[in-house]
């Protein structure tokens, strides 16, 4: 008998296919073997497979093809067994015990006396969603997600258990911690737990510490060309156009938050569009040239001043290439409009690649660490021709609400009548907890239907509503999957504008 599927758009380039949880892997395998025109990525979820296409037209054609596709039968798997030692002292252990109608020892007993199996990877690199082979009671997620969950934390939510491989935000209930290394680029595969792996949790008494992976070294190349960081400001990161195609491993694309600003800055200094540059939040940067350089600054608005070693000063303009001779110091003032500056150097930033990209992924801790005072950032050999000055796109000034166009999300019908109108009519404020992972908005809470959704794929611009009713608008370092309903998605033509909304600013969704 043919199984029914529910096919919905997730933004302009992605299509979510909701199916019975038992056939997720079979559908994913079918789409790997028989890929659709324009198909770029497959992201499994708890009861869905999301297909990411190369453009809106391919997505529309793909949605029609998926609606006509018959879903294959479920396939079984029996992978290797991995034992994970856990110290059960999580801060939500008592809350979980109350939900399950037992005590804390009962939670440990229930969690350890069953076998778990990896259903899929998502959220972050190495984050495996584990389903219990035996029936497991449903555990509600937190009403307000935590901003920071430590690496090695063992958690439960809905019918799943998991281990957080890296420090990250999260809305699951925390019951313990482990020193098992869930993700390592020195291992093949990098994830300890892959689909089909069987997992057994074992209670241990001794204290365990999750390992903290070291970032790749940054060295000045033999040419002696580089940029010395005198002051990184609030946050300065190396970013290119990211690492697409790895969402099924829990690795999001990441890359420059304002992709248009990076492309424009690279064009000005003669680099390829995807060359790595420096992305800074808020200004306040000081950089010194090691060797003669050509730079350009795009994105947010700030004053640019150059001081020579002899103490002479001059100003330069955003949107124009300028020379920074050996020993010259570039000082970028605080941003007065917008949020993120992009600094391109002719030849491109030449830090080591990780999974094919030089980008810093702040959620997954992939790529080089945030730049610090005293760092020497290597610069590659120049190849292109320096461009002419360009007009920069307008960035949010913060005096009036920033308008972001949105399209309805795949879960809009899960919300009560009036919720969509409330989302659009409210003037939302951006909280200080916002970052490259997402903008957290505050305002009158949106009414939500009771219950939760299965973990499912996310895309940049997805507007998720947790039980608190206050939306989160995901950015470029978003988790690859999430378990709260998506009411809307920011239109592609406003994703760069989303990256430029300052903290504390007001936002209207249109």
From TrEMBL:
Residues 5-193, 248-510 form the Carboxyltransferase domain. GO terms for molecular function: ATP binding; hydrolase activity; transferase activity. The keyword ATP-binding applies. The keyword Hydrolase applies. Keywords: ATP-binding, Hydrolase, Nucleotide-binding, Transferase. This is Carboxyltransferase domain-containing protein. It comes from Tsukamurella spumae.
């Amino acid at each position: 008998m043919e199984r029914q599927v529910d096919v919905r758009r997730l933004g302009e380039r992605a299509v979510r296919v909701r199916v019975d949880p038992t056939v997720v892997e079979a559908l994913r395998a079918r789409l790997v073997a028989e890929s659709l025109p324009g198909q770029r990525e497959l992201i499994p979820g708890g009861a869905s497979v999301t297909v990411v296409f190369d453009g809106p037209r391919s997505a529309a054609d793909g949605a029609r093809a998926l609606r006509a596709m018959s879903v294959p039968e479920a396939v079984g798997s029996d992978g290797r067994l991995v034992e994970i030692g856990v110290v059960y002292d999580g801060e939500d252990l008592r809350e979980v015990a109350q939900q399950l109608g037992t005590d804390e020892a009962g939670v440990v007993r229930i969690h350890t006396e069953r076998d778990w199996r990896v259903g899929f990877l998502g959220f972050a690199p190495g984050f495996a969603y584990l389903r219990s082979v035996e029936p497991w009671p449903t555990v509600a997620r937190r009403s307000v997600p935590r901003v920071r969950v430590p690496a090695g934390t063992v958690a439960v939510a809905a019918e799943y258990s998991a281990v957080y491989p890296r420090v990250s935000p999260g809305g699951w209930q925390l019951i313990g911690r482990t020193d098992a290394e869930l993700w390592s680029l020195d291992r093949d595969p990098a994830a300890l737990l892959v689909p089909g792996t069987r997992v057994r949790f074992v209670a241990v008494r001794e204290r365990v510490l999750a390992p903290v992976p070291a970032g790749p070294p940054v060295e000045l190349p033999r040419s002696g060309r580089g940029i010395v960081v005198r002051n990184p400001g609030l946050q300065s990161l190396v970013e290119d156009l990211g690492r697409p195609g790895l969402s099924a491993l829990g690795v999001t694309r990441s890359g420059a938050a304002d992709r248009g600003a990076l492309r424009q800055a690279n064009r000005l200094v003669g680099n390829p569009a995807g060359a790595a540059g420096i992305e800074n939040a808020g200004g306040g940067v000081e950089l010194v040239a090691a060797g003669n350089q050509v730079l350009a600054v795009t994105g947010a608005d700030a004053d640019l001043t150059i001081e020579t070693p002899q103490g002479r000063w001059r100003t330069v303009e955003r949107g124009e290439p300028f020379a920074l001779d050996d020993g010259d110091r570039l000082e970028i003032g605080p941003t007065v409009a917008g949020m993120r500056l992009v600094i391109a150097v002719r030849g491109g930033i030449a830090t080591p690649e990780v999974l094919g990209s030089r980008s810093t992924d702040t959620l997954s801790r992939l790529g080089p660490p945030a730049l610090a005072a005293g760092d020497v950032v290597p610069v590659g050999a120049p190849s292109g021709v320096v461009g002419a000055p360009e007009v920069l796109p307008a960035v949010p000034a913060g005096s009036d609400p920033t308008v972001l166009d949105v399209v309805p999300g795949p879960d809009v019908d899960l919300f009560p009548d009036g919720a969509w109108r409330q989302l659009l009519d409210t003037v939302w404020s951006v909280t200080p907890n916002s970052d490259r992972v997402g903008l957290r908005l505050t305002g009158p809470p949106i009414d939500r239907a009771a219950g939760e959704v299965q973990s499912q794929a996310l895309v940049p611009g997805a507007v998720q509503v947790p039980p608190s009713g206050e939306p989160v608008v995901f950015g470029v370092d978003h988790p690859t999957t999430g378990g709260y309903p998506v009411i809307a998605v920011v239109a592609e033509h406003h994703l760069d504008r989303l990256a430029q909304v300052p903290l504390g600013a007001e936002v209207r969704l249109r």
